[in-house]
Design brief:
367 residues, alpha/beta, six-stranded parallel sheet
Length: 367
């Protein structure tokens, strides 16, 4: 019931998707579509799922992150008859199991014909473990930057065996979801996990892509002194022109109070950076995967690890300093808070719906 009430609220804040639902209800453009979904199982995702079902689709679903599921949203979808394999706080093994249950029905691969993916974990598992399914799948609509990068790498290597619509690259996705959604929701996650004052703090944002830019803009609005680290000279120059300090992480590590990675790359913060951080430094990530912060380095260095509060662990260093890691290096905005607001997900999921409709109509004829 809680999930259903929240869905009702989100529907009022997602007018584009609801208008599409009304516009295409009689046409049923997804009749016969069997869609496997692997994306953050949130209230906003529930609105998308019900839109797909209302317009003819059959679904099987899982989350693309072990911490991002909102259990009341998953419960509402299950109560509506949609098979959902997701809960907040999965282990890595359970996460893999959930994706496999999305793929398999009654112990055998489902005769799915489309995929909605976020990070491309579902796509990767289908290619690796269930290659026979590739004969019937028309294609995938990919939600996020990291997933698009992975899929382009697969395509360049000749390994991608069905077409992809890169929903992330739609201007009405990245220019709103990635910038405004990530900026606001990341701050929300940090504050829920720490309740720290941002005004006057040195806040280090690693990466000045769309997500990093949105976070930097919002953190500055909270009164923080924002430092950008960026390996690409063009975004680095943009950050300077936008009025931010730009330096290498090796330099920023000793002056930062809070650190948030937003690069999609691995090993952005590693042992040598932890060595020079201040006592009480707060470290978190808002990129899709938990590889940006070397948690293994932090664990290896610590003499003691203990939980302060939900999504806030303290790592005691041999010299007496403490470093705080939020949400185990997972997406702090979804693990510690509720993810992007409905208004920006409305545009993103309207794009997802239109992409799936196009795949349903034309995907079997694409290369």
């Amino acid at each position: 019931e809680f999930g259903r009430r929240e869905i009702s609220l989100a529907e009022n804040e997602m007018p584009a998707l609801m208008a599409l639902r009304d516009k295409y209800r009689d046409e049923q453009p997804l009749a016969g579509a069997k869609i496997m979904g692997c994306i953050h199982m949130t209230i906003q995702t529930a609105v998308l799922m019900e839109t797909l079902v209302d317009l003819g689709a059959e679904l099987r679903w899982s989350s693309c992150n072990i911490f991002s599921t909102q259990d009341h949203a998953a419960a509402a979808m299950a109560a509506n008859g949609i098979p959902v394999f997701a809960w907040k706080g999965e282990t890595d093994e359970e996460y893999e199991w959930c994706i496999e249950q999305t793929i398999c029905k009654d112990g055998s691969p489902w005769d799915a014909n489309m995929i909605l993916d976020d990070g491309s974990d579902l796509t990767s598992m289908v290619h690796a473990k269930f290659p026979d399914m590739l004969e019937t799948i028309h294609g995938v609509s990919e939600e996020t930057t990291t997933g698009v990068h992975r899929l382009r790498a697969m395509a360049d290597a000749g390994e991608l065996l069905y077409p992809v619509i890169a929903v992330n690259d739609a201007e009405t996705k990245w220019d709103f979801d990635n910038i405004h959604g990530t900026g606001q929701s990341t701050i929300d996650g940090i504050l829920r996990a720490t309740s720290v004052l941002l005004a006057g703090k040195n806040f280090v944002v690693a990466g000045y892509g769309h997500c990093g830019k949105g976070l930097a803009m919002r953190v500055r609005g909270m009164g923080a002194n924002v430092i950008i680290t960026e390996i690409d000279p063009i975004p680095a120059l943009k950050a300077i022109m936008d009025g931010f300090r730009v330096m290498k992480m090796d330099e920023a590590a000793s002056v930062g109070d809070l650190f948030c990675t937003a690069t999609g790359m691995k090993d952005v913060i590693v042992r040598r950076h932890f060595d020079s951080m201040k006592d009480g430094a707060i470290v978190c990530n808002t990129g899709h995967y938990d590889c940006e912060i070397s948690i293994s380095d932090l664990e290896d260095m610590a003499t003691e690890i203990f939980t302060i509060r939900d999504n806030n662990e303290a790592f005691s260093m041999p010299d007496g300093r403490r470093i705080h890691l939020l949400a185990r290096g997972r997406l702090v905005n979804l693990a510690s808070a509720e993810g992007h607001p409905s208004e920006v997900m409305d545009m993103s999921f309207a794009n997802q719906f239109l992409a799936l409709c196009r795949l349903a109509k034309e995907g079997s004829g694409y290369d």
